[in-house]
Amino acid sequence: MKIVKNAVVGVNYALDVEGQQLDASGDTPLTYLHGHGMMIPGFERQLEGLSEGDSYDFKVSAAEGYGELNPEAISDLDKEIFMVDGSMSTEVFEGAQLQLTNQEGHPMVGVVQTITDDKVKIDFNHQLAGKELRFTGSIASLREATEEEIAHGHVHGPEGHQH
Ligand code: ZN
């Protein structure tokens, strides 16, 4: 069979960005249900049609990866927010990664860009936004999903949900 929607794919992968390996599946392939938006769009699209044992090497544009950099996701926040007992939190410095909560109560991860007299500039873009991604690897296993897996939208069994 080939990778199509509703295939359960076991994939070995390495992710390189700007020549640096950022992530890799290691000893255990990543297993996912193809065609359900579990992976980034460009990854699933380019794996489509491959068979078990095939290797691959492709690039995914930012638009089909983690998205383009959004200038509106860079915010100037009042420094007061980060003051603890009258002084700046030691966790806040240029380059620090912070987890904050937005007005709707959702957690957001941002990176401190600059700190001025009264503002802290934080970039809430995904760290891989605006970047071209390169994936290399091979297809370790491939099978058709069960009806139950398709209904749930995820893989069952030792490599997936066990419920
Ligand atoms: Zn399930």
Description:
The protein folds into two domains: 7-66 and 129-152, Chitinase A, domain 3 (Roll); 71-123, Thrombin, subunit H (Beta Barrel). Strands 1, 2, 3, 4 and 11 form a five-stranded antiparallel beta sheet that branches. The longest helix is centred in the first third of the chain and has 7 residues, at 41-47. The protein contains two helices and eleven strands, in the order βββαββββββββα. With 163 residues, it is mainly beta. The radius of gyration is 20 Å and the shape is elongated. Zinc ion is lined by residues 152, 154, 156, 161, 163.
Class from secondary-structure proportions: mainly beta
* Helix count, DSSP H or I runs of 4 or more residues: 2
The pLDDT mean sits at 94
Strand content: 35-45%
CATH-defined architecture of the largest domain: Roll
Termini distance? Answer: 27 Å
Tell me the Rg in angstroms.
Answer: 20 Å
Give helix and strand order, one letter per element, not per position.
EEEHEEEEEEEEH
How many DSSP E strands? 11
Bound small molecules, by name, code or SMILES, are: zinc ion
**Global geometry:** elongated
Q: How many individual domains?
A: 2
CATH topology of the largest domain: Chitinase A, domain 3
